[in-house]
Backbone:
């Protein structure tokens, strides 16, 4: 478990002005399959994406329906840094909101 002050640079006086909260930090790309299955929300799709990306999968798909499409795609646009993939998916999801991620990829191909 890390503490907030551990994340500050050693230089400067920032540490004395901030409370030293304990932080639970998870490296999402290193979750196990069992841990990913625990998530019932869209975060399960996101965590699965990052694990597969870390492992070097060429295609990354998921069969779960996306519940919060706009929010998830905005998150992925920022953190996945994969705009070429995200933009056409976003358009496709708007047209077919009940599709799973796999259905969307099949429509795009």
Residues:
């Amino acid at each position: 478990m890390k503490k907030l002050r551990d994340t500050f640079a050693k230089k400067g006086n920032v540490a004395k002005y901030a409370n030293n909260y304990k932080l639970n930090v998870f490296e999402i790309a290193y979750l196990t399959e069992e841990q990913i299955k625990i998530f019932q929300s869209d975060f399960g799709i996101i965590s699965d994406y990052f694990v597969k990306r870390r492992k070097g999968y060429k295609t990354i798909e998921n069969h779960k329906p996306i519940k919060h499409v706009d929010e998830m795609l905005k998150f992925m646009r920022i953190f996945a840094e994969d705009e070429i993939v995200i933009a056409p998916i976003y358009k496709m999801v708007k047209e077919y909101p009940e599709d799973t991620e796999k259905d969307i990829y099949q429509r795009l191909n």
